């Protein structure tokens, strides 16, 4: 039977405010445990939360970025549950009236088409602290350690509709979301520090069936790679279970990226009753039109606008423009390389081709590329002005990647890779090649035009080889045909 | 009543059924007490059941009031939330804030082992 997977995402995005959502404690990453947790974050008696204006502004920016309605009157609710890293015994969050209403994002698929993913809503809430289960300095004594520095950090939780059908689409969505929040400057995008955490809801159903299958939720994935693996694994597990006659149980699962193992965490039957109610400590947050208009006027160029500019101003095709504008880091890199290289299309080919391939092989993101955008632009410029051929350019790229020079010009100079465009020099090489291959020359001259076209390739190859790839291929072709007449 | 200090995230009992005006069962009281991590004696369950049933009567009377066209009220104060500028105003006060913690180490609060 053919199966179809249905995937929805819930993403926790840590807002890049300087302080907590309800207190003036710092949110800086990496501080000593509990040095950035004040009385409000600790939930001590007598405290009063006060809402951080910037958290509200950032949530609004996100809403405007995904073309969603912004809810004018915001109520915060208490979600009650017991866990040691939640000292108040409740999480302050939003329920009925989230700050960001329904919106959407378009993602690019491999076949060149775009796919729309609807966003159900995004709400503001506070993060919990961290529980540490590893041994402490005195060794294992059956205790867990609690660090509340993260408690109270502002989050927006973005909830999508189940509009994705495979892991690739989910990852494309995640990358685009990453691009939007970093473009907006509302999140630092540091996945390894937990700045974006993904929960994936996965179910499967027979192809063509309308009714959704029972879904599971895999929580807290913090890299695109783990997310893709966890989704594929879960789809596979569900299909195998159903084909073996089992039923899928609605449950929460945990995926360990290091071991590539997923396990059940808790099932729905024992689900919590969160007893939500409006937080009596917080008054309604009313968003005035003036605030909305001010933020609207300060919005940066969003990926979609950038894509349009890549198409209209730089002459890129739709697919290339989508791929290059999708992520902020890639878009910035490409624009810098195109500017330095003086040829946007050539720069696009190199960023999406050799660079992307090499980054992928080395498991690197574009921000950590050993070849800077300026260096790649310099390489593009030398291809454009015929200093080097496309083939030699790959050699230069490899040298730049391996840090054998800081610029294309330096590598070309040092390795003597400059393309030979001097007619006399190329003629000398050709004469030598023809002299060393009299039999082939004989055959060529005896052949008709159709066969000659194919046979000339042999001489071109020999000549290029003799020039160690440096002869200008176009000139080699022309001169050879003349000499072989 | 004593505070139930068990750290388990999940209630061992199922969530309470919807409470209706017919009153509250002892079972519902026990499950709500568990959700709030309160351990209560048999006697207290009986007394609490009676009291809560009486309160439900009062709520029934309130439910009967016609509220058509009235906006739900999230807070009894007729005011809106003041916002705070995003500036760090708190400094590290860890030593003092942790003085009441029953167990601590390496700047961490220690609690009975939790595994999620």
UniProtKB/TrEMBL annotation, chain A:
Residue ranges annotated for the Asn/Gln amidotransferase domain, each copy included: 332-484
Gene3D superfamilies according to UniProt: 1.10.10.410, GatB domain, N-terminal subdomain
InterPro entries for the chain: Asn/Gln-tRNA_amidoTrfase_suB/E, Asn/Gln-tRNA_Trfase_suB/E_cat, Asn/Gln_amidotransferase, Asn/Gln_tRNA_amidoTrase-B-like, GatB, GatB_C_1, GatB_Yqey_C_2, Gln-tRNA_amidoTrfase_suB_CS
Catalytic reactions on record: L-glutamyl-tRNA(Gln) + L-glutamine + ATP + H2O = L-glutaminyl-tRNA(Gln) + L-glutamate + ADP + phosphate + H(+); L-aspartyl-tRNA(Asn) + L-glutamine + ATP + H2O = L-asparaginyl-tRNA(Asn) + L-glutamate + ADP + phosphate + 2 H(+)
Catalytic activity, EC: 6.3.5.-
EC main group: ligase
Entry keyword set: ATP-binding, Ligase, Nucleotide-binding, Protein biosynthesis
Subunit description: Heterotrimer of A, B and C subunits.
HAMAP family membership: GatB (MF_00121)
UniProt family annotation: Belongs to the GatB/GatE family. GatB subfamily.
Described function: Allows the formation of correctly charged Asn-tRNA(Asn) or Gln-tRNA(Gln) through the transamidation of misacylated Asp-tRNA(Asn) or Glu-tRNA(Gln) in organisms which lack either or both of asparaginyl-tRNA or glutaminyl-tRNA synthetases. The reaction takes place in the presence of glutamine and ATP through an activated phospho-Asp-tRNA(Asn) or phospho-Glu-tRNA(Gln).
Protein name: Aspartyl/glutamyl-tRNA(Asn/Gln) amidotransferase subunit B
Top-level taxonomy: Bacteria, Pseudomonadati, Pseudomonadota, Gammaproteobacteria, Oceanospirillales
Name of encoding gene: gatB
């Amino acid at each position: 039977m053919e199966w179809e997977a249905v995937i929805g995402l819930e993403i926790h995005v840590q807002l890049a405010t300087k302080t907590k959502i309800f207190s003036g404690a710092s949110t800086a990453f990496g501080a000593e445990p509990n040095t950035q947790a004040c009385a409000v974050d600790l939930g001590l008696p007598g405290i009063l939360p006060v809402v951080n204006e910037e958290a509200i502004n950032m949530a609004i920016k996100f809403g405007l970025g995904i073309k969603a309605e912004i809810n004018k009157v915001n109520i915060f609710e208490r979600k009650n549950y017991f866990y040691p890293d939640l000292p108040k015994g409740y999480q302050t969050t939003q329920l009925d009236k989230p700050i960001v209403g329904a919106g959407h994002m378009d993602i690019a698929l491999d076949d060149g088409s775009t796919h729309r993913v609807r966003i159900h809503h995004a709400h503001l809430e506070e993060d919990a602290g961290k529980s540490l289960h590893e041994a402490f300095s005195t060794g294992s004594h059956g205790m867990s350690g609690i660090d509340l520095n993260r408690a109270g950090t502002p989050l927006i939780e973005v909830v999508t509709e189940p509009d994705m059908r495979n892991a690739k689409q989910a990852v494309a969505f995640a990358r685009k979301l990453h691009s939007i929040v970093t473009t907006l400057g509302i999140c630092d995008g540091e996945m390894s520090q937990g700045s974006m955490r993904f929960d994936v809801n996965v179910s499967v159903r027979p192809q063509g069936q309308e009714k959704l299958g029972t879904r599971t939720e895999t929580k807290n994935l913090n890299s695109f790679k783990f997310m893709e693996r966890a989704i594929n694994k879960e789809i596979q597990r569900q299909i195998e279970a159903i084909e073996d006659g089992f039923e899928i149980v609605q449950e929460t699962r945990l995926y360990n990226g290091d071991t590539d193992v997923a396990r059940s965490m808790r099932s729905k039957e024992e689900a919590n009753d969160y007893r939500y109610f409006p937080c009596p400590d917080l008054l309604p947050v009313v968003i005035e039109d003036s605030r909305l208009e001010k933020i609207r006027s300060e919005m940066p160029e969003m990926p979609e606008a950038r894509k349009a500019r890549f198409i209209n101003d730089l002459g890129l095709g739709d697919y290339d423009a989508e791929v290059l504008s999708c992520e902020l880091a890639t878009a910035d890199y490409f624009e810098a390389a195109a500017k330095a290289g003086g040829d946007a299309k050539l720069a696009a080919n190199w960023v999406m081709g050799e660079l992307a391939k090499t980054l992928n092989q080395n498991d690197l993101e574009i921000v950590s590329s050993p070849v800077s955008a300026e260096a790649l632009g310099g390489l593009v410029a030398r291809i454009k002005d015929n200093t080097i051929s496309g083939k030699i350019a790959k050699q230069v790229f490899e040298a730049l990647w391996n840090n054998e020079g800081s610029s294309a010009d330096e590598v070309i100079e040092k390795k003597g890779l400059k393309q030979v465009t001097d007619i006399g020099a190329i003629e000398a090489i050709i004469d030598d090649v023809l002299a060393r291959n009299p039999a082939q020359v004989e055959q060529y001259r005896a052949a008709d035009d159709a066969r000659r076209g194919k046979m000339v390739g042999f001489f071109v190859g020999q000549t290029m080889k003799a020039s160690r790839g440096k002869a200008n291929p176009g000139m080699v072709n022309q001169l050879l045909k003349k000499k072989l007449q | 009543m004593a505070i139930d200090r068990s750290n388990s995230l999940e209630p061992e009992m199922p969530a309470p059924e919807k409470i209706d005006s017919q009153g509250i069962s002892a079972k519902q009281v026990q499950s709500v007490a568990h959700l709030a991590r309160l351990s209560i004696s048999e006697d207290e369950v009986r007394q609490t059941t009676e009291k809560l049933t009486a309160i439900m009567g009062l709520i029934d009377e309130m439910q009967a009031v016609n509220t058509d066209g009235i906006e739900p009220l999230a807070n009894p104060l007729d005011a809106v939330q003041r916002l705070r500028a995003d500036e760090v105003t708190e400094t590290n006060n860890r030593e003092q804030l942790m003085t009441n913690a029953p167990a601590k180490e390496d700047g961490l609060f220690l609690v009975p082992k939790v595994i999620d």
